[in-house]
Amino acid sequence: MSQSTRSEAVASHKIDNGAPLLEVKNLHTHFFTGEGVVLAVDGANFEVHAGKTLGLVGESGCGKSVAAKSILQIVDKPGRVVDGEIIYSSQVSAGQEVRRDLLRLDAGGAEMRAIRGGEISMIFQEPMSSFSPVHTVGNQLTEAIQLHTEMSDKEANETAIQWLSHVGIPNPTQRLNEFPYRLSGGQCQRAMIAMALSTNPRILIADEPTTALDVTTQAQILNLLQRLQAETGMAMIFITHDLGVIAEVADEVAVMYLGRIVEKAPVKEIFRNPKHPYTKALLTSIPRIDAQPRERLPSIKGSIPHPQNRPSGCPFHPRCPAFIAGTCDVKEPQLAAVGENHQASCFLYPGC
Amino acid sequence: MLGYLIRRITYGIVTIFAVSVLSFLIIQLPPGDYVTSYIAALEAQGDDVSAEEAETLRAYFGLGQPPYVQYGKWMYQIAQGNLGLSFQYRVPVTEVIGERMLLTIILALGSVVFVWITAIPIGIFSAVRQYSIQDYIATTLGFIGLAVPDFLLALVMMYLAWDWWGFSIGGLFSQEYAAAPWSLGRVVDLLQHMIIPIIVLGTAGTASLIRITRANLLDELRKPYVVTARAKGMTEWQLILKYPVRLALNPVISLTAYIFPFLVSGSIIVSVVLSLPTLGPVLLRSLLSQDMFLAGAIILLIGVMTVVGTLLSDILLGLVDPRVRLE
Ligand SMILES: Nc1ncnc2c1ncn2[C@@H]1O[C@H](COP(=O)(O)OP(=O)(O)OP(=O)(O)O)[C@@H](O)[C@H]1O
Ligand code: SF4
Ligand SMILES: [Mg+2]
């Protein structure tokens, strides 16, 4: 594809470093199941800045996906956002921003749907099953485009082809009429990225987009995402349990444990100067370069408690090597500054 | 798609062959040959048959020849539209079943359409609003529909129709149209008379199809592509109807083929109760009176209808689901 058509497809977003583009405050998302209430997200706080990547990291089941879906108000039943604010600053016209609490919008209403997939797009872990197997790739791509633009079928088709070729899919015109099973996992994820970005979103939420792929493809997809971010200036929330990937893509890191953010800092700071015992434990368990690609992080002592029987006090206390009896199991630590641009919630630090 | 089509048609032909052999065996089943039973039947009705006539008949039917030759002859005749003679009615089988065949197909198709247009929307709604009051009501009614025997339902509906609207629903035609040639009036009359038989015949199918649609859709609703569609900004009904419903209906399409023969055979008792001029009662009577050409022909036709139904739904499935064509 020539340089000129490429710039047609990719509209650039202005990068500014003022107020966050998206601010998640005190988010609580619970699942009301027959066996009881699951506190999947229980007071999470994080923010996303324009043009930057927030890495959301934590062990499996800590509530990363649920937090991400809460932003778009697409939490699966029987889950519900029960408390919190999600302040998103929409661009109403050039240079003019309006800050709105997304949770105040009707989940099925037109305003929320315009944001969903239009201003904030999301890609998922299982690229193959994230496409409908009985609709063509083109059908699903143009649908996304036409939901958020006034394009005719023909224009939407052309845009879809441009995006497919832009994400590195060979023979995009032919691919458009094919069903997803004809694409490899990596190609499916590329098509998914094309679909998510075809509406020029300001934020891309990538929920473990490389976990299901082999190492080589993983690296290609990460490079692709970084390239596209540089071109479009979009912000990213990158969800993973792989700190190696975080080191590569993130600007800021939020470490999540049992539905809460336990530590937040710029990426270098997290790696050089981790404060929270959970973050330290995660860092010592980073898979070695020669480890199996899909291997889970070697687990930290003990297992993650089920969110349904959350421990009292600091949620990490049953597994914490620095556990302070009489404090950690009684009181709940708060997220507080432990350094410049660095927050943690742990009684080892004053102010928490 | 072409390869898939050829494969399906080949299977269909093989199955039809198997069904025809089976039907032939049924014809051969009673002791003696058909001429013996034919003569017995005729004599029971007071007709005398001479030994000479018997011989002619035997020669005509090719008895005494090896079974495969007889089978071949039977098939050859059928290919020419001759299904043999009915002993009981003493007219060609085609004459006995001609219009009944047509009415049976119309009734079965009508029932399938009824089952589809009631069960699919209810099933979809039940799944989307899982555990709602409406879902529970649909589930309860579904189980009742499955549990109540058809003939009982037929009797109750007949009584109600008579009691409430003074509408008598024996048969498929009013008296003035029963023997009349086809006309617009006759078609309208038929449609009116078909309503209750279709409801009676379709109830059990509707009940089970509601369960199937609901279960399939609940499965599909949990798939990742639904989340993708939601994350695109589609409205909930827009995405449900386009994606999971489309996938949940694939098995429903192939199931229709299995409902079809069930409707034809299941209609026997209902047809007797409602005195419908369909194949069912004739099949029953022909089996009771060992009217073997008639029974064989009906079984063969039902078999062929089933195979054709299966073939059609396979083709439909191949059209809507690209994965099926691969196999
Ligand atoms: N549909 C649901 N019903 C009940 N509980 C749920 C449901 N979805 C998620 N949960 C609960 O919410 C918690 C957080 O789940 P979530 O999917 O956000 O984890 P995650 O951090 O994304 O993990 P992973 O790395 O495995 O994707 C889990 O403990 C899970 O039990
Ligand atoms: S608060 Fe206590 S238990 Fe929790 S992480 Fe800090 S030291 Fe460990
Ligand atoms: Mg997840």
How would you describe this structure to a colleague?
- The complex is a heterodimer of chains A (352) and B (327).
- Chain A has 352 residues and is of the alpha/beta class.
- Among the domains of chain A are: 135-200, no CATH class; 274-344, no CATH class.
- Chain A contains eleven helices and twelve strands.
- In chain A, strand 4 and strand 5 (96-101) form a beta hairpin.
- The N and C termini of chain A lie far apart (54 Å).
- Chain B is mainly α and 327 residues long.
- Chain B has a domain at 105-280: Orthogonal Bundle (MetI-like fold), CATH 1.10.3720.10.
- In chain B, 80% of the residues lie in helices and 0% in strands.
- Chain B contains 15 helices and no strands.
- Chain B has helices at residues 2-28, 34-44, 51-61, 67-79, 93-128, 133-147, 150-165, 175-178, 184-221, 224-232, 236-242, 244-273, 279-288, 292-320, 322-326.
- Chains A and B meet through helix 3 and helix 4 of A and helix 10, helix 12 and helix 15 of B.
- The structure holds adenosine-5'-triphosphate, iron/sulfur cluster and magnesium ion.
- Adenosine-5'-triphosphate binds at residues 31, 33, 38, 40, 58, 60-66, 76, 79, 241, 307 of chain A.
Compile the SSE list and pairings.
The complex is a heterodimer of chains A (352) and B (327).
Chain A: H1 3-9, E1 22-33, E2 36-48, E3 53-57, H2 64-72, E4 79-93, E5 96-101, H3 110-115, E6 120-123, H4 137-148, H5 153-166, H6 172-176, H7 185-197, E7 203-207, H8 215-232, E8 235-240, H9 243-249, E9 252-257, E10 260-266, H10 267-272, H11 277-284, E11 336-339, E12 342-344
Helix pairs in contact in A: 4-5, 4-7, 5-7, 7-8
Chain B: H1 2-28, H2 34-44, H3 51-61, H4 67-79, H5 93-128, H6 133-147, H7 150-165, H8 175-178, H9 184-221, H10 224-232, H11 236-242, H12 244-273, H13 279-288, H14 292-320, H15 322-326
The complex binds adenosine-5'-triphosphate, iron/sulfur cluster and magnesium ion.
